[in-house]
Amino acid sequence: MTAILLALASSSAHLIRAPGARAGAAAAPTFESKLKHFAAAAELPALRTEAARLESEMQSAVEEQDFAAAATLRDQLSDLRQKDPAFLASNLRERLEVLVRRESYGEAATTRDQLLVLRRFQPQYQLAGLWKGVYPNHGEATVKIHYEGDTLVAVKMTGDEHVPAGETTFRADLTTPWQEGASVEEIDEEELVGVRVEVVSVGSDGSEQREVERYHGEGRVAARGFQHAHYVPGQLILVEPDTIGFLWQQMGIFVVFNREQDGPGEMMIEQRAVDA
User: In the chain, what are the domain boundaries?
Assistant: First the structure.
């Protein structure tokens, strides 16, 4: 039986210094130099789990007024998070908002370009293209994923009597992981069981599949004839580079999708981001 690890990364604290900030007399690292220190995509789940552990220990040290230990943990956490492109991206988004408010459009354009570059290092932005999944009561269907800014959008290429072809079946906000800082114990038990059952069914060949990350999303539901169509809360789940899933929460429906062919590539991702 295939096991799936539901470990969520905490991104509530951003300890990477924003571009342009100064730390004493030391020169701030350039954006390009930071790219060289990122961990491989496969290493990010373990890195984020370790970061969450260090953050918890640091908070405990502060509560116990052990400030020397807290400072050491803070430095360790900062070093670790510099290996995660998601933390740098979060800081850059905050910086972009500030620059736009100040009407510093030249610097804002540079920061936006840097955010586009960071997408190449983040698995959630490498999903453009065709995917095939099996919908309960409707059977096999193909969806096409594209990006609108930081939103992933999945459009049905083959429809059914409820949601026809050409309509969005689900979408997800890629900027913030689902339930920051949550542990396995904090995930609803019924939700967790449903996810495990579906993933086991596609991993019955004995290969191990593990969740990389989860993101807030919305799934489309409708009555026959696409009547009363609306979105309900959901989650996008990244399992492997060629396997993702989407959970329609409350309804308990989880669909696993496998990549059909290589996506259009980073050019499409970046172009849609620019056009959004």
Answer: 31-121, 124-275
